[in-house]
């Protein structure tokens, strides 16, 4: 399926894809991944889709094991595992997951969800961030990742929907690892991504909790 990319970044393009996919006859599961994640398509789609098809989950989040992380550039491995731990700690602190629940590999941008209006709507809803004058705030862009990847999952957990972690046999493409290993531009991007995404996530939880401290508001 081809779709014309919309202006505004990754968020609008992903929403456009979701809107087209949900109207296709027979589509029961919709997935979000990236072009370079070839093993997701070749090895993992059936695994992460099955719980949704069996009506055991509304959203599934693929999870990598330690061997999978070893196929990544070293800095990316460190930053993503650090981000995952922090995000899961935040989710537990706000009672969005239980203490004994397994960690989500939530920082990894792979999402699969049921093609049902109450679920797809979560991935199409947009929020805007009120920026301050700090250097970090100037880099925040909820349309890059959070609106279509992170906020829907947090909203689903808040609503008590069935979000499941599914272990997958993923190996990162060697060509991608070689291209990014030691690349200063990619390294700088990793540090910034972690800080901005965590900032956006915390503000979204504040939004859900009706905290006056939140910088997020829903786009009507």
Please trace the helix and strand order, writing H or E for each element: HEHEHHEHEHEHHE
* Secondary structural class: alpha+beta
Distance between the termini: 29 Å
Helical residues, percent: 40-55%
Average pLDDT, rounded to a whole number, is 93
Largest sheet, spatial ordering of strands: 1-3-2-5
Using only CA atoms, what is the Rg?
17 Å
Shape by Cα distribution? globular
Percentage of β-strand residues: 5-15%
Total number of beta strands: 6
For the largest beta-sheet, the strand count, sense and barrel status come to: 4 strands, mixed
Number of helices: 8
> Which residues sit in consecutive blocks of at least 5 with pLDDT less than 50?
1-7
What report would you give on this structure?
The chain has 220 residues and is of the alpha+beta class. The chain contains 8 helices and 6 strands, in the order H-E-H-E-H-H-E-H-E-H-E-H-H-E. Strands 1-3-2-5 form a 4-stranded mixed β-sheet, sandwiched between helices. It is globular.
What layout of secondary structure does this protein have?
Blueprint: H1 10-21, E1 29-32, H2 38-53, E2 59-63, H3 66-69, H4 74-93, E3 111-114, H5 117-124, E4 127-129, H6 146-159, E5 163-167, H7 174-180, H8 184-208, E6 216-218
Parallel strand pairs: 2-5
Antiparallel strand pairs: 1-3, 2-3, 4-6
Helix pairs in contact: 4-8, 5-6, 6-8
